[in-house]
Amino acid sequence: MTTQRAETNRVTSLGENDLGTVIEDTGVTLVEFYTEWCGTCQRLKPVLGALAEDTDATVVTVDIESHLETAIEFGAQSTPTFVLFADGQPVKQLRGGQDEQTLRALVDRYSD
């Protein structure tokens, strides 16, 4: 499976085999489970980019159509679904479109 890793402070798109590694290697990780055809997901791309640039969190996107087992494992039954991991553990899940302020507050709550 190919891994697409972006530069530091960028949104990263990872396959299911890589997600565990990223979560374990970072303090706070925000994962968005999405689909290409999800309009809300498309509108959130700039928000995720801003979070990746402005916070210490790692921001990862996972296409649920390509990685269904991973989506099921983390309860992503609709798109977008956000799962925040802190110290390798899932601590919060949000479903549906979120605004930047909500996501930023969530990341800040669990960042050092």
From TrEMBL:
The keyword Transport is assigned to this record: yes
Gene Ontology molecular function: protein-disulfide reductase activity
Gene3D superfamilies hit by this protein: Glutaredoxin (3.40.30.10)
UniProtKB keywords: Disulfide bond, Electron transport, Transport
PROSITE patterns: THIOREDOXIN_1, THIOREDOXIN_2
The keyword Electron transport appears for this protein: yes
PANTHER family reported in the protein's UniProt record: GEO12009P1
Full protein name: Thioredoxin
Organism in which the protein naturally occurs: Salarchaeum japonicum
